[in-house]
């Protein structure tokens, strides 16, 4: 049976052996939700970069540049970290370059994996189906918040664990814990997440619309993956 | 209102500000269960040490020396990491020195806190009562397993979070997550934990009796704390 394990924050990634495995990077609020949305809406590719400067350099080459730090758009960039921005960007037909506080770091820290997928509630079932159909062990990599555990990414990891149980061995305690947590609150995800630290931070920024969108399941059927440093569709 | 946060593994302790706070160190299987048991049964003090060599040096000075690595007693020591060993040790009236894989490390990494308490299911209500009666913010420090998240310590953290809710603000997402997890499985703690990675490891070592003991709530009413490098009773 294939194994499923969960890395609760990139700060613990050194404890996960990613070699030969599929990594699923999760940053529900909001980086991976944006990426799934953008790819599903027709952006040709999204290049995740760790530094604001790299993002600026790609902007100079004609990319639409998205830069977010601490939940806000960085001055001088085309857009921040809202899925609705990505929908607009998709209409231009241009490539996107993106840097975010936690999500792009989680992608770069997952580089040792054989494949890196981009997951969020908006493509939950597509991720589950993809993982079932392939043969490798899987590590879910929650982006967390500045190195720490967060609720929304862990809940998504738990949703995948619940969906894969029976076909995958839940290999570590984090998989068991997040699965139980997801099953306990899945009928009121939004209500439960409203208590979370990051939701409270984001609420102050008046982006409830983004949060509602990010917590809607299965809006899209795409599975974006990182190939040669670019996010493209599987 | 006082704040409660949870550090899910000592590997994340640098993200917690312990200064001026009470830390509760948790290593349910089995270090803190042993410590609570030993203190409640009458051991005058337990000195937690990080290294096997330090433990050996205290043995030479007349301490009963407990050393565990990877779940097993280290050769040449008086006892390993079973609460029943600690009950026997209590009958001698001697001091104990102890080193374990995860628990003693969690204690040493909590040194910045104002107070360090020793918690386990066997003294759950005593810990909750103590924390309610004092005035400081609290950080629960789960010992985990070799740096990683584990189920039993997180469940205990969640049990404390559930017990303190209303009087404490659940400050971080880990407190919310572990509380929900505990509430979902509290009626069958043993059944749920039997699935955990560490329980499976320990089951191979034939110490089911220790596990059953560790998962029994409120056997003791004591609150051990670390004072000047020794665990003593509050």
From TrEMBL, chains A, B:
Required cofactor names: Mg(2+)
Catalysis performed (reactions): (2R)-O-phospho-3-sulfolactate + H2O = (2R)-3-sulfolactate + phosphate
EC number: 3.1.3.71
Gene3D superfamilies recorded: ComB-like
SUPFAM superfamilies xref list: ComB-like
Keywords: Hydrolase, Magnesium
Family assignment from sequence similarity: Belongs to the ComB family.
Protein's name in the database: Probable 2-phosphosulfolactate phosphatase
Organism: Persicobacter psychrovividus
Gene: comB
């Amino acid at each position: 049976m294939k194994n499923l394990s969960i890395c609760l924050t990139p700060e613990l990634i050194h404890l996960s052996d990613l070699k030969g495995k599929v990594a699923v990077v999760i940053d529900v609020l909001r980086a991976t939700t944006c990426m799934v949305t953008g790819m599903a809406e027709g952006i040709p590719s999204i290049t995740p970069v760790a530094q604001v400067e790299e993002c600026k350099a790609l902007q100079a080459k004609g990319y639409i540049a998205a830069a977010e730090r601490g939940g806000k758009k960085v001055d001088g960039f085309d857009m921040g970290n809202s899925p609705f921005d990505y929908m607009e960007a998709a209409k231009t037909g241009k490539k996107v370059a993106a840097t975010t506080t936690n999500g792009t770091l989680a992608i770069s820290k997952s580089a040792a994996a054989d494949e890196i997928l981009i997951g969020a509630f908006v493509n939950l079932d597509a991720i589950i189906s993809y993982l079932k159909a392939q043969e490798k062990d899987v590590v879910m990599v929650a982006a967390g918040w500045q190195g720490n555990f967060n609720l929304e990414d862990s809940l998504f990891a738990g949703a995948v664990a619940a969906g894969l149980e029976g076909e995958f061995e839940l290999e570590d305690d984090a998989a068991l814990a997040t699965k139980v947590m997801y099953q306990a609150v899945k009928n009121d995800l939004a209500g439960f997440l409203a208590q979370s630290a990051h939701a409270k931070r984001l609420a102050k920024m008046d982006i409830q619309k983004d949060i509602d969108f990010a917590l809607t399941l299965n809006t899209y059927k795409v599975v974006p993956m990182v190939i040669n440093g670019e996010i493209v569709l599987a």
